[in-house]
Amino acid sequence: MNIKIKEKQLQDLQEKVNLIFSDADCKSVLDKGSKLSGDDIINQLIDSGLRGRGGAGFPTGIKWKGAADIKSDIKYIICNADEGEPGTFKDRKILDERPEKVLTGMALCSKAVKAKEGFIYLRGEYNFLLPNLNKKIDEFNKLFKEKGYDFKITVVSGSGAYVCGEETSLIESMEGKRGEPRNKPPFPVFEGLFNKPTVVNNVETFAYTAMIINEGPEKFKTIGTKDSKGGKVFSVSGDAAVKGIYELPLGMTIQEFVDIFGDGDTKAVQVGGYSGKCIPRKNFSNTIIGFEGVPTGGSMMLFNSSRSMYHILKNMLEFFQEESCGQCTPCRVGCQQLLKGIEAIRSKERPIGYLEELKKLSNTMAIASKCGLGQSVGNPFNSITDNFKDEICY
After folding, report:
1. pLDDT at 7
2. Residue 223: pLDDT above 80?
3. Quick check: 383 and 359 in contact, CB under 8 A?
4. How far, in Å, CA of 110 to CA of 68, rounded?
5. What pLDDT was estimated at residue 171?
6. How is the chain split among helix, strand and coil, in percent rounded to 5?
7. Measured in whole angstroms, how far is the alpha carbon of residue 387 from the centre of its chain?
8. In the predicted model, what is the mean pLDDT of the chain?
9. How many whole angstroms separate alpha carbon 77 and alpha carbon 351?
């Protein structure tokens, strides 16, 4: 497809959403929020159908309602900006270009759940954003007081641990402990930071919150599908003719996505970063990008026929083995054994039938691992070995 045609299609799709990176007067959004009750804010979010944009997709309004209903003198708001998923880099751009929307969303959350203190847990590799981000935070902390919000935001920097993208590991890190997941329940909304009720949402979710209160839930509901309302910011990388960060409506098929971003020879798309699923070409047209199909935190990695899916899977497993916190045996040992297993098959030390044993292991990890790291390893492992078995034992 001609690159100019692709750019025109892309522009048309972006114009359908145009919420995150559009110009918006966040002072007026705060004014609107100040005139609403906490219940009003929550009900507008529930009505909009906004679900968490970090990947898990829990309904945002329901999470906030849970925190609002708990009686506690101290509550916290945390913006998860620990964007460590390989292939995902859209939160960095949002914080760089539209931080005021994130801060406004956090302030609206503070009013909804009656919290006085908020934190942005920033990925350590993003510390270069701090000068401008802190300047904007200082400005908005003053603005919050002027607008009647008893709320203050500060930044806490992480140290680059992938596992701290998981909300309870993040909280442990913020408390000065080793970044390891907690047992759930209790969930953070009941017992989070310093065992107080805590709302944790990611950068994009808070930005959408501000725009929903500004525009009203109706506009948001006109975008996307019944089960996947609204837009999504995508990080597009790999063998793509068009790369970068784009806000698009949810509900597209993989084929529609590839028609715009692909290089004409796309054989697979890894949706949701390393922890997501790898979709083969044969399933492009019947796979929806959304909660009713393949949900994504934002990463879309395209691979063409020049790529070895064995080497891609090996790279993923090496990453998971390195980033496992080691707390639970299924993840700590499982990641090692999956990696050794495909290496043994590749070297002919094990027959191709050994893949079935490895799949049993990955499925056990999904059940027995303590957090999303170990639980999600089976997504890329099973989807790649199911669809590209011939490349594993080449």
Report:
1. 77
2. yes
3. no
4. 9
5. 98
6. 50, 15, 35
7. 25
8. 95
9. 51
- pLDDT value of position 6: 76
What is the reported pTM? 0.95
Q: Can you list the alpha helix ranges (DSSP code H) found in 223-308?
A: 254-261
Q: Is 210 helix (H, G, I), strand (E, B) or coil?
A: helix
Under 8 Å between Cβ of 52 and 242: no
Phi-psi region of 132 (alpha: psi -120 to 50; beta: other; left: phi over 0): alpha
Q: Look at the block and give the residue holding tokens 């999956």.
A: 338
Nearest CA to 103 out of 85, 120, 86 is that of 120
Q: Do domains 16-221 and 309-392 have the same CATH topology?
A: no
Structure tokens belonging to residue 373: 């790291």
Residue 1 predicted with pLDDT over 60: no
Task: Evaluate whether 330 touches 377 at the Cβ level (below 8 Å).
Answer: no
**Cα end-to-end distance, the chain, whole Å:** 32
Q: What is the mean pLDDT of residues 127-142?
A: 98
Tokens of 304: 């063409």
CB distance 186 to 195 below 8 Å: no
Contact call for residues 343 and 351 (beta carbons, < 8 A): no
Fold of 16-221: Rossmann fold (3.40.50)
User: Tokens at residue 210, please?
Assistant: 């501000």
CA distances from residue 104 to 63, 138, 144 in whole angstroms, order as listed = 18, 13, 9
Provide the residue ranges of all domains of the chain, joining segments of one domain with +. Answer: 16-221, 309-392
3-class DSSP state for residue 304? strand
Helix (H, G, I), strand (E, B) or coil at 179: coil
The answer for residues whose C-beta is within 8 angstroms of residue 333's C-beta and 6 or more apart is none
Average pLDDT rounded to a whole number, residues 369-394: 94
Query: What are the start-end ranges of the E strands in the chain?
Result: 76-81, 117-122, 152-157, 198-202, 231-238, 244-249, 266-271, 277-280, 299-304
Q: Does domain 309-392 have CATH number 1.10.10.10?
A: no
pLDDT digits (tens, 9 = 90+) for 73-113: 999 999 999 999 999 999 999 999 999 999 999 999 999 99
Size of the chain, expressed as the number of residues it contains: 394
